[in-house]
C-alpha cells in the first residue's frame, strides 16, 4: 500500500510557524518508504499557515525522491494560467515528482478574501482544471470561458511528467465523484469519511465514465494516523492535539454538512482512522486495501503535537 504523509503546516500562537519540522518529517518519510509528502491549504488562520505552493517548492528542494502532492489546492481561488505555470515549474524543479490535488473549498471568508463569489466555485473549478490540463498537454491553447480567456497561450517549460502530472480531487458528494471521474485521475476522500460509506462511494466513483485524457481512477483514502508501541500510547499522544484541531474545524466547517463529525468522541474518530500498535495499524491498512484503496494519506501530527512524537510515528509506519 502506498502511504502519504500529510504535513502539519500550522503555526503556533507562541511562535511564528517554522517549516523546518516539516522538512525533517519529509526526509524521514522519504527514508521510510512513503510515496508522497502531502500539503493542504488554509487562509485566514491567525497563528499562521504555510502557503502551499512555496512550501511544496521548498520541500522539493530539500528531498530527493518522495512525491510532492497537494490535497488540496482550492482551485476556484486561483487565476488558472498562473496556477498552471507555477505547478508545471514545481514539477520541473522536483524532477517530475508532482501530484496536483484540488478541492472546491468551503470557507466563505476565504472566497471573500480572494474576491470570488462562492456560488461560482463549481464553474470556476471546472474552468480552472480544463485550462491547467490543456496548458500542460497542448502546444498552444485558445480558450474563451466565463472567467478566463486566453489566445494562443503556451507554457515553457512544460511539466516533466509525460503526458502530465496526475490530478486528484477531494470531496464527498456524488457530483464531486462524477466530476473527478470526468476531469481527474484520482479521488482523495475526506479525513472524516466513514468506513461504512467507502465501498459504496468507491463503487460509485468508478462507475462514472472516465473523461478523455484522464489517467485512471485511483482512490486515495485520507486518515488520521498514529502508530506507537500500544494503542493506549497512541491515544495518549494523539487525542489532545487532535481534539484541539477538531474544535477549530467545527468553526471552519460551520457551513458544511459534515461539521458534526468534528464533535464526535474518540471511539468514533478511531473507527475511521489508523491509530494504535504497529500490528493494529497494519491490520487497518490492509482493511482499506480490501475496501479498494490504492493509497492512504496519514495525518500524523496535529498542531500541538511534539515533533519527537511525530517522528517516532512516521518511523513506525515505515517499519510496518
Automatic annotation (TrEMBL):
Keyword hit for Flavoprotein: yes
UniProt cross-references to InterPro entries, sorted A to Z: Luciferase-like_dom, Luciferase-like_sf, SsuD_RutA_monooxygenase
Keyword annotations from UniProtKB, A to Z: Flavoprotein, FMN, Monooxygenase, Oxidoreductase
Oxidoreductase keyword on record: yes
Luciferase-like domain residues: 16-294
UniProt feature coiled coil, ranges: none
This protein's name: Luciferase-like domain-containing protein
Organism: Kribbella koreensis
